[in-house]
Amino acid sequence: MTENTPSLKEKLEGSKKYLQNADLKEKDLEGANLQGAELGGADMRRANLKRIFLSEGKISKANLSEADLSNANLSGADLNKSNLGGANLQNAYIRRADLRGANLSETNLSKANLRECALFKAWIKRADCSQANMQNIKGAQLHMQGSILRRTKLEGADLSGARLDGVNFEDAGLQTANLSRANLKGANLNRTDLRGANLRYVVGLTREQIELALIDKKTLLPNYLKVKWESETKFQVIDKKD
Question: Do 92 and 70 contact (CB within 8 A), yes or no?
Fold first, then answer.
């Protein structure tokens, strides 16, 4: 390569509107500025996308499985039905991205910002979402079985009808979240903040789980669990099924 020959990153930055179905498998695009790029259907498996700037990118149905997207900016990006399985999204900024129907199973989303993301029917099974910001996500019918959400911010999240069985919510904040009809079988609710949350019609919730959590008089519980308040903070849970 001569001194004046542009690198792949420079070529892509110059033609970012014409990258649909591009073959970028295992390519090194660290730090590239591809804001608003048209990458629908692109193959970016195992690519180095650290610190890449893809804000407002059109990346639907792309394959980013096992790619390194740590510290990437994907804010407002269209990732509808994209495959990010096994990818590293640690510290990524993904706020308000469209991830409906996307696969994020077995990803590293620790400390990532997914605030206000659209996650309807997305798959985030067995993922590490510890300390992530997932406030106000639209995650109805989300599949999240077996994921880790320790100390994750989920205030105001819509998780109605979500599969949350086996999820570790230890020390997570779910204030005012909507979990109506969600499956919480086997979920770890140790010190989980459920004040003001809607747990009406949930599946698999037990008295023991609630006793480990933080609730208040605004928390809506399923009909089979009755709370007898002894003080503003102390309560007794009665399971009508016993």
Answer: yes
On whether the pTM is more than 0.90, the answer is: yes
Report the C-alpha gap between 127 and 68 in whole angstroms: 15
pLDDT in tens, the chain (242 residues): 445 678 888 888 887 678 999 999 999 999 999 999 999 999 999 999 999 999 999 999 999 999 999 999 999 999 999 999 999 999 999 999 999 999 999 999 999 999 999 999 999 999 999 999 999 999 999 999 999 999 999 999 999 999 999 999 999 999 999 999 999 999 999 999 999 999 999 999 999 999 999 999 999 999 999 888 888 878 888 887 65
190 exposure class (CB count in 10 Å sphere: 0-12, 13-18, 19+): middle
